[in-house]
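Lab notebook, bench 4. Still working through the backlog of constructs that have no structural model yet. Next entry is a single chain of 103 residues. Request: give me the structure tokens for it.
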Amino acid sequence: MIRPSPVRRLIDAVNAGDAEALLEAFDGGGAVDDRGRMHRGRSAIAAWSSSVLIGAGVRLSALSVEGDDTFTVVVAEDRRGGTGLRTFTFALDGESIRLMTVR
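Model written out:
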């Protein structure tokens, strides 16, 4: 089981192709930093996801999880046309993601 639960919910949402569940994992002011490009707020995150995450058919498998307040998850990313490793770092606010950084 992946801990903490907001991270698990996000990975489950991506793998299910559930854009609404992905957005619910973030707090109202949540943001995604995708290699230096910031996407702040649910509408911006939805547009980003429809282009490069859920809309691209990405599936995630957590390979390692580290951290106490900020969690770093190394994932195997399977997308149409190939696979690769990415590092996702999550800053949480209670049961919500405040910032997800993708490298």
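Notes after review: The beta strands are 26-34, 37-40, 59-66, 70-79, 82-93, 96-102. The chain is about 30% helix and 50% strand. Flag for follow-up if needed.
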